[in-house]
Design a protein that fits this description.
The chain is an alpha/beta fold and 290 residues long. The chain is built from eight helices and seven strands; from the N terminus they run αβαβαβαβαβαβααβ. 39% of the residues lie in helices and 13% in strands. It binds ligand L4XM7KOE and NADPH dihydro-nicotinamide-adenine-dinucleotide phosphate.
């Protein structure tokens, strides 16, 4: 994967996330257990901090154990409850064992937030089979394995639950990331379908669709593409992971107890106005990319 690292860190640091003001009351998720995939990434990390600060035990999931352990240590320093779980969401057996382990250790799971995911920018006409499969397996199949394992455990334990899937805004042709638009459209459709099937199990399923949110995940885009992201919406700025975290807390918790099958867009109005060119603006559209 080609990386274009920024000279400065993108997104929010743990020190900032520890004190960022929140609209929620301190104990709104007290005693709850929340699983956050991609919990050591940019958006997942903000979600982990917010949910832990709201009183939950946060089980953070990813492939890189050292990143997860470092985050759990940072949370523990502030007397916040968290545990680190290494798993590749593309491996259904590992995902099932993950939920077995969290239930065994914590005795409950209340919410699942799927923030693990990503893609690389490339014109669709040039996608390789391996590249296409990497994006579909991660974002559609991986998210599904997590959703199904969470729901099966809730059914077995006769416990209510809620799922929030972090997706991408799919209403525009977002140039250069067609594979992820396909995968995320699948997740949105799937969420709507199982919101109905799983309502009898007292499981709600919603999505949050972020616009351009500054995180280290952006290192897969060129500095020129990143510099243009503020023009992707009429607020003329990029979003913060905290803004996605608060929308996620709203949907995951009791504030959304009558909401299911919904997708909440957090994009500064980008669906209404703005330009997003993940591979640069082509000459055809008035840009200078050949
Ligand atoms: C309308 C509303 C307006 C809204 C405005 C929205 C604006 C949004 C702008 C930004 C959109 C989204 C941003 C984000 O989501 S950033 C945060 C997410 N994080 C990432 O994306 C991190 C990087 N991506 C990943 O890690 C992916 O998950 C990935 C699928 C690439 C990783 O999977 P895996 O580890 O399996 O992948 P590999 O590195 O092994 O690669 C597998 C094959 O994929 C192909 N590939 C990978 N990178 C590239 C590349 N840069 N170019 C072309 N092809 C690539 C390739 O075939 C790989 O195989 P090989 O290595 O063998 O060649
Ligand atoms: N930032 C943005 O502008 C936007 C982001 N999004 C989406 O929001 C989600 C979070 O994005 P963001 O936090 O910025 O991205 P990051 O790249 O910062 O974080 C993604 C996390 O996902 C984890 N992950 C990736 N693949 C797997 C896997 N197979 N199994 C387990 N964990 C995995 C990674 O951890 P590890 O490497 O340890 O496995 C990483 O911590 C993604 O789905 C992203 O596409 C949507 C719209 C815009």
């Amino acid at each position: 994967m080609t990386e274009h690292p920024s000279p400065s860190k993108l997104g929010l640091t743990d020190a900032e996330l520890a004190v960022h003001p929140t609209v929620f009351a301190n104990d709104v998720l007290k005693d709850q257990v929340i699983v956050v995939s991609g919990g050591a990434g940019g958006i997942g990390r903000a979600i982990a901090w917010l949910f832990a600060r709201l009183g939950a035990h946060v089980a953070v999931v990813g492939r890189d154990g050292s990143k997860l352990d470092a985050l759990v240590a940072q949370l523990a320093e502030r007397h916040l409850k968290a545990s680190a779980h290494v798993a590749d969401i593309r491996e259904p057996d590992a995902v099932n064992l993950l939920f077995d382990a969290i239930w065994a250790a914590q005795g409950r799971v209340d919410s699942l937030v799927n923030s693990a995911g990503g893609q690389f920018p490339q014109p669709a006409i040039d996608f390789s089979v391996k590249g296409w499969n990497a994006v579909i397996n991660t974002n559609l199949n991986g998210t599904w394995y997590m959703m199904q394992a969470a729901a099966q455990h809730w059914r077995n334990h006769k416990h209510p639950g809620s799922i929030v899937n972090i997706v991408v805004v799919t209403t525009h042709g977002l140039y250069g990331i067609a594979h992820t638009i396909a995968a995320r459209s699948g997740v949105i459709g799937l969420s709507r379908a199982v919101a109905v099937e799983w309502a009898p199990l007292n499981i709600r399923v919603n999505c949050v669709a972020p616009g351009a949110i500054e995180t280290e995940g952006w290192n897969v885009y060129t500095p020129e593409a990143r510099a243009a992201y503020p023009r992707s919406n009429p607020m003329m700025r990029v979003g913060s992971p905290w803004e996605v975290a608060e929308a996620t807390a709203f949907l995951a918790g009791p504030s959304a107890k009558f909401i299911t099958g919904e997708t909440l867009t957090v994009d500064g109005g980008g669906q209404l106005w703005g330009e997003t060119w993940t591979t640069g603006k082509p000459a055809y559209f008035g840009g200078d990319d050949k």
